[in-house]
Amino acid sequence: xxxxxxxxxxxxxxxxxxxxxxxxxxxxxxxxxxxxxxxxxxxxxxxxxxxxxxxxxxxxxxxxxxxxxxxxxxxxxxxxxxxxxxxxxxxxxxxxxxxxxxxxxxxxxxxxxxxxxxxxxxxxxxxxxxxxxxxxxxxxxxxxxxxxxxxxxxxxxxxxxxxxxxxxxxxxxxxxxxxxxxxxxxxxxxxxxxxxxxxxxxxxxxxxxxxxxxxxxxxxxxxxxxxxxxxxxxxxxxxxxxxxxxxxxxxxxxxxxxxxxxxxxxxxxxxxxxxxxxxxxxxxxxxxxxxxxxxxxxxxxxxxxxxxxxxxxxxxxxxxxxxxxxxxxxxxxxxxxxxxxxxxxxxxxxxxxxxxxxxxxxx
Length: 363
Known about the structure:
alpha/beta; PBP_domain; 9-stranded mixed β-sheet; D-Maltodextrin-Binding Protein, domain 2; 13 strands; Phosphate_ABC_transporter; two-stranded parallel sheet
């Protein structure tokens, strides 16, 4: 069940239990915009998307609800990919107004939005996050290279003769004889997750490119390169643990030999029980993520349907709160939740263009 900050029944955004009209998103076929104009009867912002951005969005939503006359927005964690799919499915009461994302929106998603009548999108960058590979504090902290991480997770791995073989590394000591002979067990996000997308780009490709012959394929045969670098192993050494990062933390506490992949914010909130692995000699700290020295760092976003500004009450005010210095600035209250803030100049630039409702450009 998705996480919510309001105790109301939510069924595919039908929201009848919350006093909103309309049917469910399933009433409209996938990839097809509503045939009737979107309504203006709803008075509550609906937000979906990234489980990594979820704690930040709920914190802002709660502060927004307490400090304004608007209703507290409904926030759900559906994963970045799932959220963008819902977001781009149409305009109106049956669809979310805002979607959170732990990666930037893709061109294919912008195209899908446009096909469904959503042509003006406001992009909001909120700060940075690191993706950690964590284990229980009951175990020793892991020190891994990107190459070792790739070899632990890839579906196929180099065979030493210029080719590939199915991943037969079962124990960590199979990858590096200095490691303990414990079974490789890594829990991570599903394909719908922005954390998964970012991890593939930063960690899997980072490790993959330490093999020169694979790195060369990026320019000469990109499809083969992606097949080698992006595919996760399908045995029990890698387990898709869903979108609930808190569940991964609980499982790590129950299994000290396992590792889990999730955002720095969850590590920051659970530092008494889990610890982040050192990657390529750099630990995942606030400072190392902020200055870009930690190799698995990314930007965090959310996206807004500009057409709904002035139609769904409170969207402008929500944007004002989220982009304020007191919220997402250097010493804002979101940094206490684990958000790595932008520097002063970058924050001011994003705040200015968001409040001006500048629309997205992927150029």
